[in-house]
Hints:
This protein is an all-alpha fold. It has one domain. The protein contains seven helices and no strands. Helix 3 packs antiparallel against helix 7. The longest helix has 29 residues. The chain is elongated, with a radius of gyration of 16 Å. The mean pLDDT is 85.
Amino acid sequence: xxxxxxxxxxxxxxxxxxxxxxxxxxxxxxxxxxxxxxxxxxxxxxxxxxxxxxxxxxxxxxxxxxxxxxxxxxxxxxxxxxxxxxxxxxxxxxxxxxxxxxxxxxxxxxxxxxxxxxxxxxxxxxxxxxxxxxxxxxxxxxxxxxxxxxxxxxxxxxx
Length: 159
């Protein structure tokens, strides 16, 4: 989308870097993570959140794409990843109620991130001029939530 390339490059780059750093941090604590299904699921949710930001950035940079096409893509991305995140959330709740799980549940971004993408997609399909502005708080919330989850996950493992 014209005018959104810089936003996409910055947010996609940030999300990609965070995924890389998160994988390094997780590999340091691999044995502890493998002992707990809940921790593995929460780590998976964090990677998915960062992945959603990366894929959103990729979609924003597709050349000569119509707003309606981008709207359909973002709507589909929101539905697919929202479903995946919700599946992981339900699985985490059914596994255990350890304090880490309860803490991460409070900072869970599933509904906000998936809902923001679905809303952006629907607004683009409806040809609303300001539709892409919804992706800004959605992306900021996703990055902040992913960082928060990663922080809690890794600090709880270290302690």
